[in-house]
Amino acid sequence: EVQLVESGGGLVQTGGSLRLSCAVFGLSFDDYAVGWFRQAPGKEREAVSCISSSDGHTHIGDSVKGRFTISGAGAKNTVYLQMNDLKPEDTAVYYCAAKLSPYYYCSEYGPNEYEYWGQGTQVTVSS
């Protein structure tokens, strides 16, 4: 059974940092891409970042570029999202998701094309 488990969310002040983790169980790390998405109340789900495990390709969304980085831990099947210089507009539930055997770069796929999702972790940035 494929499972994704996020952790690392919490409450932080503006300008602070958090590191989210996404542990992936039941898949070989070479076979999938992992994406981070977020959804704030009343807003659509937004793509934040993704990583393609086969070639290490990464993508960072424009709204977080220069502040967030994504990395994968290889054999540990864990993907990290390092979030620095957090702003109140970053407040959302953050989800990680996995797409099996991606053909294109991970950034080419929308949230509906990811097959497996974690339960989400809340990130709240106070002003």
What does this structure look like?
By secondary structure, the chain is mostly beta strands. The chain is 0% helix and 50% strand. It is built from no helices and 11 strands. The chain has strands at 3-7, 10-13, 18-25, 32-39, 46-52, 58-60, 68-72, 78-83, 92-100, 116-117, 121-126. The strands form 2 sheets. Strands 2, 4, 5, 6, 9, 10 and 11 form a 7-stranded mixed sheet that branches. β7 (68-72) and β8 (78-83) form a beta hairpin.
Strand-helix topology:
Blueprint: E1 3-7, E2 10-13, E3 18-25, E4 32-39, E5 46-52, E6 58-60, E7 68-72, E8 78-83, E9 92-100, E10 116-117, E11 121-126
What attributes does this structure have?
single chain, 127 residues, mainly beta, 7-stranded mixed β-sheet, 4-stranded antiparallel β-sheet, 11 strands, globular
